[in-house]
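Could you join me in thinking about how sequence relates to backbone shape in a protein? We need material for that, and I hope you will provide a protein of your own picking. Label the sequence line and the structure token line clearly, so we can match residues to local backbone shapes. Would you write everything just below, so we can both look at the same thing?
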Amino acid sequence: MSENTSNELAVTASEDFSEMKGKYLTFWTDGQLFAIPISDVVQIVQIQSITLVPEFPPYAKGIINLRGSVIPIIDVRLRFGKAEIPYNDHNCIIITSIYNRLVGFVVEKIEEVTPIPNEEISPPPQMSHDFTTTFLTGIGKHDKKVILLLDTQKILSLEQMNMLGGSF
């Protein structure tokens, strides 16, 4: 899939939900491989011009207009407390739905859609008030790779989503 970043990928409602179960979209951010359930992905678009919005938190880069929908854009690196880096042609925006609103996540590079069986998923280590308890649902193993499984509903709280607005 990383070869097709110039094309948009849409996960259509006609896809059988059972076929998506256990499949994850993997992507790179800050040298680590992350994944979200493919069922959380609305579509993937190339990085594009982002309109800055005053008073947005630092991790919220602004908004885009995608076919008439105004979508807030979150830089995953910044949301995870990492340093900002310039965008390039490998960056993509993963459009997801959180609290029934569209939101886009800028990631450094899309890897692939991959199945991760439940038996290959371990719970995240339990540490108090850190990244693992805040954002992760588990640690996956696939093809000798360790993949950090994210919960898109935890990346932004309902209060944060309300502050950002976004499409319904």
About this structure: The longest helix spans residues 158-164. Residues 2-164 form a domain with the OB fold (Dihydrolipoamide Acetyltransferase, E2P) fold (CATH 2.40.50.180). The chain has a mean pLDDT of 84.
